[in-house]
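ok trying this again, last paste got cut off
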Amino acid sequence: MCGSSVIDNIYRPYVAPAEEVVRRTRENEAAMAGERVPEATWSLFFSASCEPIPPDQFRRMFTARRAAVTYLAVQSTTRLRPPPPTAFRCVPD
C-alpha cells in the first residue's frame, strides 16, 4: 500500500486493519494447503509498505484476507440483526 507519505500524498491516509481481520486472515492462511507465507511478508502485507511481495505469496494472503473479511461481515450481520417481530398475538378466549 504505497502512499503513506505525508508529503504529496494523493492517496487516502493509511488505516491499520482491525486485529480481528489480521487474526482471522492468518488463521485462514495457516489452514490453506501449501507452503506458509514468511513472517516478514505478513508485516509488509498489513502495512503501508511499498516493498514488493512475491505474487504467489500475495495471492495466498489476499485469498485468506478475502475469506476472513467475508466471514466477519456475515458474522456481524447475523449477530446484530434483531429477531423479526411476530405477526400473531395470543389472545385468551
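PB: full thing came through this time. The CA atoms of residues 64 and 70 lie 10 Å apart.
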